[in-house]
Amino acid sequence: MLAGTTPAGAHAIAGQRLFPSTLTFDDPGIGAELPLVFSHIRVDGVEQDDLGIAVAKPITPGFSLTAGGDYFGATGGGVPAVHGWDNFTLGGVWQVYLDPSTESIGSFEINRTFAHTGSRAVRAGYSTWSPQFNFGQGFGFAHANWLRPFAVTGAIGADLPNDANVPRMLNWDLSLQYSIPYLQNFVKYVGIKAPFNKMIPIIEFPMQTCLDRGCHGQTTGYVDPGVTWVGHYFQWGIEAQIPINRRTGNSVGVLFEFDFYLDDLAPHGFGAPLFH
Predict the structure, then answer these.
(1) Which residue of 136, 139, 181, 194 is surrounded by the most CB atoms within 10 Å?
(2) Spatial separation of the C-alpha atoms in residues 17 and 198, rounded to whole Å
């Protein structure tokens, strides 16, 4: 049984597999949650901090509304410090398939970031549509026991600004996960005790490729190794942020996340769908 190791009403579950929320792109499930993600990195001598806050509210069992924004700050590098809220984002996410027998799950989302809704110092003067497909695949069906705790999640999407001078971007992301809860509950108990028995080591690969307008084909991204700890009402995670090339940056950053499971914290209130 999975009880006691993962939240019963959590967001991305296919069969016995829980896909935890990733720190750099959306997981393939829907539901009610409140993720907070903080990142710090230095790029060309400028210290950059970002706090992302979002909330998801289920409208039906297969559809959720999402809303969020980022508080951004930059200091150093011989330039004036800036800080403030970036533009507001509103979107929707649909569960397009879920197969417990194969531990397969997928969702489609579309978000709109609205121009001039953030702080004057950091906001963009254009709006952006961002469609994206998210997927997850567990390997619990594998014959080799060592392979069964593994899973992959990914996302592919685009940022489509309404400003002709701003390039369109292709976003392609992947994560490789090894679930210790899955290992001990469904493959073989190996004696790992708390708090390590709820950990999922993970490597994320958030990538972005420019599609046009002066930067066609240029790719930036990170390799983010870390770990996620999954509880009943929340999860937390920490990852390093390693640039893949000089174009991305020249220093290693850090990501830290708290994700509150509102569908478990308030199963009959905010966490419940409005319509069944």
Answers:
(1) 136
(2) 13
pLDDT by residue (tens digit) across 101-126?
999 999 999 999 999 999 988 888 99
CB contact at 8 A, 67 and 79: no
Which tokens go with 62?
Answer: 């297969």
Buried/exposed 225-260: b ≥16 CB within 10 Å, e otherwise: ebebbbebebbebebebebeeeebbeeebebbbebb
Per-residue pLDDT of 201-223, as tens digits, reads 999 999 999 999 889 999 999 99
Residue 265: DSSP 8-state: H
Q: Quick one: pLDDT at residue 239?
A: 98
DSSP of 23-74, one letter per residue?
SSS--S--S-EEEEEEEEEEETTEEEEEEEEEEEEEEETTEEEEEEEEEEEE
The token pair that represents 19 in the structure block: 């896909």
Q: Look at the block and give the residue holding tokens 């969702």.
A: 107
Which among 13, 12, 18 has a CA at the least distance from the CA of 182?
18
Q: Is the pLDDT of residue 8 over 50?
A: no
pTM check: above 0.70: yes
Rg value, the chain, Cα:
19
Rounded to whole angstroms, the Cα distance separating 8 from 267 reads 11
Closest CA to 204 of 250, 159, 271, 255: 255
Nearest to 203 by CA among 15, 10, 1, 23: 23
Neighbours of 60 (CB within 10 A): 13
